[in-house]
Amino acid sequence: MGASTTTGSTAPREVVTRFAPSPTGFLHIGGARTALFNWLYARHHGGRYLLRIEDTDRARSTQPAIEAIIDGLKWLELDWDGEVVFQFARAARHAEVAQQMVASGHAYRCYATAAELEAMRAEQKAKGLPLRYDGRWRDRVPGPEQEGEPFVVRLRAEREGATTIVDQVQGSVTVQNVELDDMVLLRSDGTPTYMLAVVVDDHDMGVTHVIRGDDHLNNAFRQLGIIRAMGWPEPTYAHIPLIHGADGAKLSKRHGALGVDAYRDELGFLPEAVDNYLLRLGWGHGDAEIIGREQAIEWFDLADVGRSPSRFDIKKLENLNGHYLREADDARLAGLIGARLGVSDDSNAVDLLRRAMPVAKVRAKTINELADGLGFLFRTRPIDMDEGAAKLLDDSARQLLARARDVLDDIGEWSAEALEAAVRQVAEEHSIGLGKVAQPLRAALTGRTTSPGIFDVLALLGREESLARLSDQLA
Ligand code: GLU
Fold first, then answer.
1. Is 153 helix (H, G, I), strand (E, B) or coil?
2. Is residue 127 among the annotated active site residues?
3. Is residue 305 over pLDDT 50?
4. Last residue of a domain, one of 316, 343, 377
5. Prediction pTM value
6. Under 8 Å between Cβ of 32 and 278
7. DSSP track, 287-315
8. Overall domain count for the chain
9. What is the pLDDT of residues 186-195, one digit of tens each?
């Protein structure tokens, strides 16, 4: 029996976390949550949170993806400490560590050719053995025939015993060392593998806590092999369960696993709502649902991260977003909606939106809904009618409209009270409910069947525009 080794004890050092995305695609919702948890953990403990772009896969890493990640993190207000670290730029340092490991005997050169390894695997397969490197160069001294031949550098992994990680989320997890083969650290072209690069960067950046998706748990055991060979301090690990869709399957595009930018641009969410939602995906504090930034920093800790996958629920996100819309500053919302409606250069239009916001935001769940609901303010006459509105405006509705226009025309001051009194007067004259007058008015003034309250619509459009829109429908 070999020695059993355990890691996971928390040493009293300054907390340093990091988010280490690979820029091979947009910043997806799972990545954003990993970033948030790292950010909150560092802020809660008064530590530092770093950003490392893992751009070593040259074929798949792209500049637009790097920009999308940085943009997304800024939008979510997950600011990192210090400069962004780019992994590829550190390749020489990674190679240097591999050479150090060769020198100390913790790694060795393997000259096995691709064909040889292929044959090795075929044989293992035929015998029903697990496919793994058999260590054929582990104890072999290269001879003159290896002179100038390509080689890779492999870790001389511990073969005896077992490794246990006391993960802050997964608990104690043990792997038999025999299952971890002598993995490649440096490829034959001298470039580092992902495993080596991550470990060296985490060490050099002083990372104390590695918080990431649980799809990396297996890697942690291999990474520990390198860390121990180098005699470096071991980080505390926290592998958080992945996010699943509402149907329980791993979140995919089919479930709306979009880039964070789509939550902003296409779906119209506010960053604080997305942050709050992501926080609750896999972490909880009693039954608190609405948790602002400061509160989150105060409460967040790894002990409250659940072990089972959380389910992405867009309805919950929408409800949270509705809450944050109502809390949001009207001028800020007017700016966002002005941009959507293409009127942000027009200060009168933006001001009108700001004045409309208190009534408009009461019901809306997204920026899109708000923009949709306020688009009527900027339509040019004669405004287009949607199907429902057009249908509403039959002959009897038009008679009502004609009377309403006349009564409204007589109003002295275009005030909320006067508008209400005028519409009431028309309703009473025809012995019908207020709603019966409001409906055709709404259709004529907004071209839609839903809108903010009719008195608000009249007030926001103003006398001239309101009367002109009514006249358009009577012409
Ligand atoms: N670059 C890896 C990824 O995007 C993360 C590596 C890590 O967190 O250790 O999945």
1. strand
2. no
3. yes
4. 377
5. 0.92
6. yes
7. T-----HHHHHHH--GGGB-SSPEE--HH
8. 3
9. 999 999 999 9
> Is residue 15 within 6 Å of ligand 1 at its C-beta?
no
Asked if pLDDT for residue 270 goes beyond 70, the answer is yes
CATH of the domain at 289: 3.40.50.620
What phi and psi, each to the nearest 5 degrees, are found at residue 180? -100, 110
What is the CA(25)–ligand 1 centre distance, in A? 13
Distance 240 CA to ligand 1 centre (A): 12
373 and 304 in a common domain: no
Q: Tens of pLDDT along 111-163?
A: 999 999 999 999 999 999 999 999 999 999 999 999 999 999 999 999 999 99
**Ramachandran angles phi, psi of 110, nearest 5°:** -120, 120
Length of the chain in residues, anyone? 475
| CB-facing half-sphere around the CA of 416: CA atoms within 13 A | 2
**Both 438 and 318 in a single domain?**
no
**Does ligand 1 have an atom closer than 6 angstroms to the CB of 21?**
yes
Cα 56 to middle of ligand 1, angstroms? 11
- Give the residue numbers spanning the domain of 412: 387-474
Cβ of 54 less than 6 Å from ligand 1: yes
Query: Does residue 173 sit within a domain?
Result: no
Alpha-carbon gap, residue 28 to 317, rounded angstroms: 15
